[in-house]
Please model this.
Amino acid sequence: MSNLHRRGVLTLGAALGLVGVADVLPAWSAVGGATSSGTPANWVWDPEIDQIMANVFDNGQVAAVNTAIRPWVDNNDPLPTGLPAPLATWLQNHNKLPAWADMTKLKRAADFNRRKDTYLFMLYGLGSGIMSTVIPREAKSVYWSKGGADMKDRAAKTFTFGYDLSQLAAFEPSGQFIVTANKTRLVHATVRHILPTLPNWLAVADEPNKIPISNADILVTFHSLGTFVHSKLKEWKVPMSAADEEAFLHSWQVAISLLGVRDEYIPATWNDAHAQAAQVLTPILTHTFEGQELAEVLLGLVSEVDLGLTRGFLNEFTRYVLGDQIANWLSLPRDYISAGIIKIGWPSYIAFREGLLPLMPANFYLFDQLIRAIAMAFLNGGTSTQTTPIEIPDMNRPT
Ligand code: HEM
Model:
């Protein structure tokens, strides 16, 4: 179906009341030249693995599966043994890159991640991490799931995803990203089965279908991560070649494909990604009780790592990255002195790091400490440089 035709269907459907405003129909060019099925992305989950993990949960096999997948870490590790047969077969069929993945681009993306890791730490940690707390469906799902009660551990696990994605060998046999993505996919499938059994979540869930983590939800999160970072790097004038930008997008296309998003919904270009973000992410951001609680914990984690940074500085950096509206929703108190230092200091910090400024700016050290604090807070709660294993949840948030 051509884009024009699809847009026509969307408009007609909306006019007839068949397609809700929240329904996400493809109106963008899709990766690998995929064509639209006409199904809105918020009515698509991951049926095969969802059923398999529902059975694992209902048959009391979560602990055994966690034991089996613990030593499975590298992309070229043999698949775990001792899994229920349907799960073993599913992994055999899915533990690989999508057919359209381009290793040359992925290698370039890994190198790009290494070259820009300072900004990526900052943007994923204080930008995307805090933005996730004003994405209502995500905040409510995370808060009411098991990990929501221990955000230190949960943040470290989520960081594992970004960390493994950023490694030089991420997609190569010696890397870990394909395994990490598959484990995440199993976690999401389990959450889809158990979260809808929790009355506290059902009371606040606004999904018309009452099943969390649809393809549309994953796209929203992708935009709060990859697309957001891309726009900030451009805004901050961090030098990037066209090939770097394309490679960075490609690594995210592969990442969300590995998380079960259908090709038809994955935007093919940055232009399409930004258009999709304007459609699915920007209009839904808002304050929730759950998000407020999560934001407090996340910012607390970073300020706990005592590298001489004040909470005021952290709040102001968050405000600088995400803007006043989000900072006000989260009631981040003002610290005008820190705000002034950041406004002048951060652009100079970037310019100096990128070799565009001959002299080290004042406060260079302060920004370096901030980046170290973010990294330490999210790597095993600041206690280790090892990433934290991802495990299948055996329950929702304990109440
Ligand atoms: C778990 C990453 C989208 C809700 C996880 C984990 C990772 C992850 C790495 C495992 C860590 C852990 O167990 O705590 C991602 C990425 C996404 C994405 C990269 C998209 C690009 C979403 C969305 C939602 C969601 C859209 C909800 C709307 C959850 C929940 C858990 C989880 C509830 C389980 C937490 C727990 O019980 O501990 N995700 N996720 N995720 N994710 Fe996602």
Summary: The pocket of protoporphyrin IX containing FE is lined by residues 137-138, 141-142, 145-147, 154, 157-158, 161, 184, 187-188, 191, 212-213, 217-218, 221-222, 225, 256, 259, 390, 393 (CB under 6 Å).
